[in-house]
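protein under study:
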Amino acid sequence: MESEFNHIRLHVVDQRFDNWEHFIRETPEYSIGLEVMDDLPGHRGHWVHFDHHVGVIREVTMSAAMQAYIAVRQGRLMERWLRHRNPVPVYVWNSDQDVCLAAFVLEYHELLERAQGMPLLRWIVQYNNKIDVCGGLYPVNLGELVKNHFTWVFEPYRQQRMRGKMHGDEWLVRKTIREVCDRLLALLEERAGTAPITTQPQILYASPFDFVIVDEKGDPISRLVLAAQGHRNLISLLCTRPTGRYTYSVIRGSPYDEDVFQVPRLIEAFQAAEDQPHVKIWGGSNLAAGSDSELGSSLHWTQLRDIAEPLVREAYLTSGSGVPGATPP
């Protein structure tokens, strides 16, 4: 692994900050959070939080990396803040693609501050933004992702995600972010490799009401494969934890689907069915939500199926879509 960062100092926290007040109280002035707080994105004074999960309208909220890109490219955020604190503290909780890319944008801010703004970096930030806003269910040409080195750049995160997040894995989060940044540098220097897409997500249940339950087998590319197959709404098993608990995502591919796959209603029902209903296990936004990635859910996927099916069926029939497969009058 190459040298540590020069302009940012990564802090990997063992749990997310509760809200803005908690973040400001626990971090120094001129601190940046990357998807590390259960509160709205934005900035307050000399604290910034780049995020697109909590309390947002997903389809109109930029990814964390795109927010950081605009702040650096147009707002000269790092240029300004480094005059007051160097390195700038950056707080993370995990090392997903968006977090890795945002960290790269902050560390290598000079690349964006140049007049041309690094077209290759701009392309990958824009591509990541589309995929992230859609919770990974953005229809793409899979061959293009391989050819343009996207899968190769984020291969370290893919390997880390297949292990699942565990308490005490701060070293792995830090290592993954550094390795993705090294690959982004290689991409910009025309030294990038390629990584073929070999993942084959398993469809555990296909509902007649236009959603599937799938086992991603820990591979983030699984959702792009599913999107290429035409799936738009899913309950996704990310991994089974060593404790026997599960990590899930719930993704609605589009807000223009007659409001049939209602993510907030589903996660409310899943939360109520948990073995610890008073501990917040499920949360997220209108299009993408999930169970806590460290604690995990107590519910087997068949329990999620039995909860979700009548709720989606009711919404489907209420929407006027009728019964799937029925002949119109």
